[in-house]
Design a protein that fits this description.
Layout lengths: L1 H21 L1 E2 L5 E2 L7 H12 L7 H14 L4 H5 L11 H4 L1 H4 L9 H12 L5 H14 L10 E2 L20 H11 L3 H7 L7 E2 L9 E2 L10 H6 L15 E2 L8 E2 H8 L4 H6 L4 H15 L10 E2 L54
Antiparallel strand pairs: 1-2, 3-8, 4-5, 6-7
Helix pairs in contact: 3-8, 10-14
The structure holds protoporphyrin IX containing FE and 2-acetamido-2-deoxy-beta-D-glucopyranose (2 copies).
Protoporphyrin IX containing FE (HEM) binds next to α3 and β4.
Length: about 350
């Protein structure tokens, strides 16, 4: 009995000792769980200073997050089953084979951030696949209210370009969007969670006459306003009407994608959508889990090193969930059949319009 107790105490000591030994102090004094992650600190500093303008949650962060998705979703077991190459997932092929992938219709405008990120990859010892996901995770950490995303290191160089037509378009049906994500391994609930990305997002190309038009009123904060505002009755086009993939929005200066509008109102996704309206903790946890999956699509996780502790911890959310000034619960298009839309305060004052995201 006494021997057993001693043995387990010794085992415990060995475990905590190993944990202590694994904690590495890097050349600049910063610490991380694994010495192999030390090489990321200089890259982190370069990204924050020179890609994200000193740690902002602005246009380059939005574009870098979109890039994590467009690289990763290039992965199709359905194509592989037909004997074709289905893409390598989060492998950096969108940058390595940018001359093939950036002209794909769904990648419109992505060449901007590809061209901005390329010199960073060239001056550091990191693969394009790792860099895209690393920059995305750092970028999200600059947005108040975001979760600290995971980051695993070790994606090999892409060997081939991804095939066309794997990135969803805003004019696709809900059936086709859910099928495409399902092929890549994501459930309808995970699709809704991933769309939290559109709370820190704007469109340059859906209506080219109004570049930088955001999807919600707070594109610099990772809050739930996107889920609230997409559920409000659309009444206007912020620019010109008749753009493919665009439907009416509830606020001047705000743009709404047809795909977001339909996912908010489809019986398969509406209740999940509504569940994020007034639950910041759920929003953070669900987005973090879905992004962790997205970042390693097509990759062999057993060959990767967990460097998540390098990613900065974001600031807490600013403001609280609300209806925009001048609007009320009568403007909510209730779509979840089982739970009522949460009661929210309305911002005081007259109806406002949403300013564009400034280019940097
Ligand atoms: C149904 C799936 C999706 C569709 C149809 C879609 C479509 C779009 C479109 C059309 C734009 C505007 C691009 C432009 O005109 O500049 C956009 C922007 C964006 N998307 Fe998505 N998206 C989807 C899912 C996602 C996912 C899963 C993520 C990330 C995890 C994401 C992140 C973003 C971000 C951050 C932007 C803003 C880019 C910027 O401000 O420059 N999207 N999306
Ligand atoms: C570059 O990174 C790889 C893998 O992370 C590492 O094995 C290699 O030693 C590094 N090369 C240099 C020159 O630092
Ligand atoms: C938020 O979501 C979590 C997870 O689904 C749930 O357990 C919790 O009850 C929700 N909180 C509120 C206030 O709705």
């Amino acid at each position: 009995m006494a021997f057993k107790l001693l043995a387990s105490l010794l085992a415990l000591a060995a475990v905590s000792n190993a944990a202590l030994i694994r904690k590495a102090t890097c050349a600049d004094g910063r610490t991380t769980a694994n010495a192999a992650c030390c090489a990321l600190f200089p890259i982190l500093d370069d990204i924050q200073e020179n890609l994200f303008d000193g740690g902002e949650c602005g246009e380059e962060v939005h574009e870098s997050l979109r890039l994590t998705f467009h690289d990763a979703i290039g992965f199709s077991p359905a194509l592989t089953a037909q004997g074709k190459f289905g893409g390598g997932g989060a492998d950096g092929s969108l940058i390595t084979f940018d001359e093939i992938e950036t002209p794909f219709h769904a990648n419109g405008g992505i060449d901007d951030i590809v061209d901005v990120q390329k010199p960073f990859i060239a001056r550091h010892n990191i693969t394009a696949g790792d860099f895209i996901q690393f920059a995305g995770a750092i970028g999200v950490s600059n947005c108040p209210g975001a979760p600290q995303l995971e980051f695993l290191l070790g994606r090999p160089e892409a060997t081939q370009a991804s095939p066309d037509l794997l990135v969803p378009e805003p004019f696709d049906t809900v059936d086709s969007i859910l099928a495409r994500f399902g092929d890549a391994g994501f459930s309808p609930a995970e699709v809704v969670a991933l769309l939290a990305s559109h709370t820190i997002a704007a469109a340059d190309h859906v209506d080219p006459s109004i570049p930088g038009t955001p999807f919600d009123s707070t594109p610099g904060v990772f809050d739930s306003q996107f889920f609230i505002e997409v559920q409000l009755r659309g009444t206007l086009f912020p620019g010109t009407g008749g753009n493919q993939g665009e439907v009416e929005s509830p606020l001047a200066g705000e743009i709404r994608l047809q795909s977001d509008s339909e996912l908010a109102r489809d019986s398969r996704t509406a209740c999940e959508w509504q569940s994020f309206v007034d639950n910041q903790t759920k929003l953070q946890n669900a987005f973090k889990a879905a992004m962790a999956k997205l970042a390693v699509v097509g990759q062999d996780v057993s060959q990767m090193i967990d460097c998540s502790d390098i990613i900065p911890v974001p600031k807490p959310v600013t403001g609280q969930a609300h209806l925009p000034a001048g609007l009320s619960h009568n403007d909510v298009e209730q779509a979840c059949a089982t739970v009522a839309f949460p009661t929210l305060p309305t911002d005081p004052g007259p109806v406002t319009s949403v300013p564009p995201v400034p280019p940097s």
